[in-house]
Predict the structure.
Amino acid sequence: MTEPTLSGTALLELREHFENPEQQRETASIGMWVFLITEVMMFGALFTGFTVYRLSNPAAFDEGSKEMTIVLGAVNTALLILSSFTMSLGTYFCSIGKTRLLSYFLILTMVIGAVFIGIKFTEYYLHWQDHKVPGFWFEYHGADARAVQMFYVFYFILTGLHVVHMTIGIGILLVMLWRNLLGSFSATYHTPVDLAGVYWSFVDIIWIFLFAIFYIPGLHLR
Amino acid sequence: MTIPPHTPKTLTLVFASLWILLLGSALIGFLNLGHYNIVVSVAIAAVQAFFITGFFMKALYERKIILVVVAGGIIWFLIMETLTLADYMSRGWLPFPGK
């Protein structure tokens, strides 16, 4: 089998310190995965804190979870899974040279992401109305109100940090869309789009765990 | 040009599996499993995370070196998590003079 000849965008995008596009792609890929491991460490520390407090106050944390709007949480989870799917389809079509389809799927993914953020802020507004935002306004009339408030502290920190990541993700996809419209990507060069997809799906994974720890445990108390 | 191994058919199957797992997670949540409710929901989330990492993030199609990086990161995270939780959970197991 002969080595493919460099041409088009692959040649244009090959930086001088790499021998070939494959080496450049692999290096970028490792960089993205190492970055994601640091993200796992950051979210992991918060998950660990949540676990410690939950182990100390399981009943109060279930009570806090009972107050979540399961329909909004489930719809948001379904939307994020859908957005990972559309992003994957976009990278697939780019890798076979159909860059126009990549643009459509990038737009679709961003729209789904924006809807997710909209629903999330609707939930925040409902929590604000119910006086469930930790602080002076917090109200809970059951037993162990301080532990329930702690549940909401973790809820707002973790979901808030996730929304920040979603917003950054939409920004990255906007840049990918702009570059694609300028003709930067092709079947031979599409590493940035691939890695943007990896980041987007990682943010999806974080949400799936947030859904599992914040929305599900209190369902059986309804 | 090489045809990528992750075809739309595979991706669609993974997507459908993820939605079914989400539905399963929500339905099982209505059962009273005591402390195991959160254990089951996190376990289902872990399965979903595996599917997303493997297929949507294409980790299963990457070269071995990247799999080593991913596995190394996850194992390191689990070591830190285990040690931290072991510390917190075992506090108070042994009597301390003066406490």
